[in-house]
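pipeline/complex-builder :: batch 7 item 3
reading input block
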Amino acid sequence: MTARMRSLAQPAIALALAFGVAAVLIAATCGEPFPRSMNAAGESFAALFRGAFGDTNGLLRTLAKSTPLLLSGLAVTVALRAGLFNIGAEGQLLVGGLASAWAGYALNGLPTVIHLPVAIAAGASAGALWAFVPGILKAWRGTHEVIVTIMMNYIAIHLTHYLVNGPLRDPTTRQTATPLVLPSARIWSLPGSTNFSAGLFLALAAAVAVAFLLRRTALGFEIRAVGLGPDAARASGIPVGRTLVTAMCLSGALAGVAGAVEVLAVHHRFLDQFSPGYGFDSIAVALLGGLDATGVTLASLLFGGLKSGANEMYTQTQTPVQIVGVVQAMVILAIGVRYVRKRRAG
Amino acid sequence: MSGAFGSAGLLLAGLALAAPLVLAALGGIMSERGGVVNIALEGMMLTGAFTGMWVGQVYGNAAGIGAALVSGLMLGILHYVLTQKLRLNHIISGVAINLLAVNATTYLVRAVFNVEGREAKIASAIPVGAFVGLSALLVGVLHFVLYRTTFGLRLRCSGESAETARMAGVNPFRYRLYGLMLSGILAASAGAYLSMSQTTRFSDNMVNGRGFIALAAVVCGRWTPVGAALAALAFGFFDALQIQLQGRVQMPTEFLQMLPYLFTILAAMLLRSTPPAALGREE
Amino acid sequence: MTTNPQTATYNPDPQLEVPVIQMANITKSFPGVVANDDVSLAVRPGVIHAIVGENGAGKSTLMGILYGRYQPDEGRIRIGGNDVRIDSPARAIALGIGMVTQHTTMAPALSVLENTILGAEPSIAGIVDSRAAAARVTELARSLGIEIEPGRAAGKLSLAALQKAEIVKALYRGATILILDEPTATLAPLEADALFALLHRLAESGTTIIFITHKLREVMAHASRVTVLRGGRSVGERSITETDPDELLALMIGRRAASPSALTALGAAEKREESTGSMGQWVNGSMAEQGEPVPAYLAGSRPISDAAMPTLEVRGVSVAGTRGAAAIRQISLSVMPGEVLGIAGVDGSGQRELAEAIVGLRPLQSGSILLDGEEIGSLSVGRRLRRGVTFIPEDRQREGLILDFAVAENLLLGRQRRREFGGGSVLDLPRIEAEGEELVRASRVKAPGAMAAARGLSGGNQQKVVNARALRGSPRLLVAMQPTRGLDVDAARFVYEQFRFAQDAGLAILLFSLDLDEVFAISNRIGAMFNGDLMGVVPRAQASMEGIGQMMVGGSPARPPACPPTPNPGGDRPPIPNPGGENSGAGI
């Protein structure tokens, strides 16, 4: 088997394993006796895939769900390439979304060419700021980024909840939400319920940019060096602390843009708790994609499909959507083993 | 601010909130002193909470507790196999176990309970005092186990240097396995407390970050049972104070709710300490 | 589960000349290398048996197999005449085998007592009887004439004290066979003498001792039998009375000894020593006095430029150690352009701290560092590198290389923002690869190509990559720690030639080496560190191995070399321990 085939075969095996476990779980809880219970699992998955890839609308929904996953998956990738576990993409995504919503409705009278970039930049900056905290604590005090990013998630949830309930709340709606962003700050989206938007192209551009950064630039070289050999990087004069903070801020900015796209293209306002855990899914996306921009793009399409198909599956077979989360967890386990093995073998 | 009743109430409330943190933190110590990073505490607690309620509802509280402990044990063994046998990165393994636990329990609550029209609830609560007493007792017991027994010495050595253990004829993997089994049991008991004692029902993602706070208590307590218990108590009282202050001070509830997390970051930042030397290392 | 430390399955009887250890036809391969190829070894009870060979000859692998760390692919092992399968160190311990490795395996955070009893704890119902344990360990140590502090964390012990504690640890487990891997590699000469005195006493009381070394003088002075390994094969076993260093050297390095051009650094060093015959003579006599010829390319005798300005000047530098205490105190030295200043010293004497302070990895507590007269003491590593300060770190796999990076990327490390590679934004990948290929060729790195991962290279070739990076782009000052560690003799010689070439171009080299022979071979001036102090610096022509050896254990350089060695007040114990005497306690 060639290396290329192997690199494709292993994610495939991981996916098969993950769906197998999910099938057993569905079969065990559907209340049917054995042979028929496996049918139930089969029907659920069939509905899932029909919903995700069965028709044009399903496909567009899948692409729409993939967009924030791709951006936040790239976020986790950049940090992990520097050796940092950014478990905080969810929090960065929330504050990024809120910042872009604010920029989108509070700044008046700007043309789209200025307003939209400003709103996206506001999201990126807020996400970067949120990630700066764990980054600087890691560089300065050696505080473990996992603990800090997790805590920052909870702080982000409470902070955005407070702001969107209080100072930034739209008094004219019964939802816990900010006012609608102005048309000049909206990302173009397809009319209808698919939520497909030009945000996808922004995410794809980000994937290209991340690939270029990591492979072709001095900063990317430094990020990879710090991630793979921090002691050697330090001994050869690479400013390790600064690189860690930079990578973390880039990561947070990407997650912030993910939030911004959701707000500016899909909801057109910041809805309290709008994220169904994109930030956590992004870890699975990054690992399944092998910490490589191309792989992450493919993985985000797959997970986007799972997410968009899950609703269809629930309507048709009443299988709870969380089964998709079980699949994701199993994928991380199966892929993680592969990923570490590969690194070890060099 | 408040009278004697208020402060006694605060004390009791603090103990009740700290008990699961203490239990889970002790679980974290048994794992990490053996050299295995355990951010899966959160998922182990959630699994324990669900399993305890589920089995307890049908077969009674004693069976529920037993089943919860077994579920934690299984997750401990899973984390062991993934990190030690399959050499998976400890954090990736922990993230995956947490994701699995939150999705599987939420799935099961819907698939099992909603379908049959049952409520995810047990008939009666186990007294809070039992858990508080148990956690206090376990702090002493595990301190003794860690520092005075052959098991404790071998576990600690496995966490400091697997090579040292091997060269002395001690199999570090065996002690890591025991440590993780204990870790799972302790974390699951903390979870069972949440669904069977503090409340009598399971709700989605009810652990809500307590596993991570417990892990922070382990770090702040410098990987010692007494230190971690004190840190967990501090978090517990902080939480109780926060709840008491709600509505009494001119500060939004959300800010008060943020305080424990801010406090955790601050503590992790200020209390810099040396972890076990082989913690999280892949060999 | 407690094993009784007093129990050993085999009691050697010196009367019977039956080998206590027989290893027959042992073969062991690791991916890409056959470490042991049909090796056989027989060791008689109660003797000191040496195993010699060059780096990579398979000595450590063979002993690792005997201790159960590796499983042989083929071959049989008999202990005390019985066929055994040693599948783990636990099994080896049960068979009465103890091992003291080159680097301590004691966990630094645990106490000496905990490390010693680990796995064989005296206990009641799983509860450690720490009082009994302490009593037993202290008693055992006293019977050996060793003072140990059971309650002290192992990480706070000197390397010499740790090694003794390791021996106590092995004997506590009832070892009747003791394996020592390069036991003197990290010891000063006097400490090595004390160690061998202890080993002789143990052998007299019936313990079988195997020690691995590549130093022939230790073999001639202390072993009664010797097995020579070369290239993974056993090439001879001799009684010391029936052999001589010439024969052993010939066995060790094989045909190459015949060719004068292959008179390698190691060979030359060993040749010098062999005529001194014994350790005692070696300690008392100085190489310089005996007028040993030193190959011209090695001698640090080339004229140094008369430049008024030293390339490096270190003035009163103090640096904090890892635990906060001062690791090096008030160190001053200077290195002229084109000069090699060699710093000898036992491992852990502060060399690492000094080197890291000079290249910028450790902040100074006080003092200043001048490069070509300009203060650089507060600059970052990167800025110092830009001014021409390069570094060969001690640990090539951790600090020297990024193993998952390609060789060309490793060669680029630290220069990735230079104008010639893209100026800090977009990397000029074709150029990086092309220059990598060129350096790989010029530095004789054996690699499939510059884009191959460094992980796949052998240790020696990895070291060559580190060295090539440090010498790249005409640096001003090279701080080199153990630049030839793990290199075979030809490769080491090539490194010295590279250094010489760079010296001719004006490079100043500050060399830190644990290998005294290396320091003498290439330095213009020689200094020694002890316990965080620079004990002095002497020109090569006036330096004697004995004098530098004295400085390495805290002696003053002012003492005339002819003066007989005296037990130094601040150093470790004298060769013959005084059982009732006070504990010197001064860690080196």
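note: The interface with chain C takes residues 216-218, 221-222, 224-225, 228-229, 231-239, 343, 346 of chain A (CB under 8 Å).
queue -> next item
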